[in-house]
Amino acid sequence: MAIPSRGAVARRMEDRVDNYLIYDGECPFCTRYARLTRLRQTVGELRLINARDNTREVKAAITAGFTLNDGMLLHLDGRYYHGAQCLNRLAMLSSRSTLFNRLTYAIFRSPTASRLFYPALRTGRNLLLRLLGRRRLGS
């Protein structure tokens, strides 16, 4: 059996789809949600990225026109899902292995429910950040 060349390994790494979730690491709700959602079983590797870090993914999201202060951003299989769409997609993809994941699936599996509830969740996040004396993203 031939050992693949370093170039072949590098090309395979580049071809690999890079899945990640950008969330507000200063928001306790966002951080908790990102950590509790069980996606590894259905999605495989999913990197969690703090929107407050100056990563290339955060820069690319902002350049692409996403307002990260308005919601989490899921990059999955080359596509972006933002805000309510992100929440819906995460609910559909997460395992049902924990009570938390079963509840989020039950509530947010519907795109309509996700769109209806997401503004209230975002308002709660903004209020919590203010109460904790933390700045919103980009301020």
Protein described:
This protein has 139 residues and is α+β, with helices and mostly antiparallel strands. It has helices at 6-15, 28-36, 40-43, 56-63, 84-93, 99-108, 111-131; strands spanning 20-23, 47-50, 73-76, 79-82. The protein has one domain (16-131): Glutaredoxin (3-Layer(aba) Sandwich), CATH 3.40.30. The protein is built from seven helices and four strands, in the order αβααβαββααα. It has a four-stranded mixed sheet with strand order 2-1-3-4, sandwiched between helices. α5 crosses α6 and α5 crosses α7 (111-131). The radius of gyration is 17 Å and the shape is globular. The termini are far apart. 26% of the residues are buried. The model is unreliable at 4-15 (pLDDT under 50).
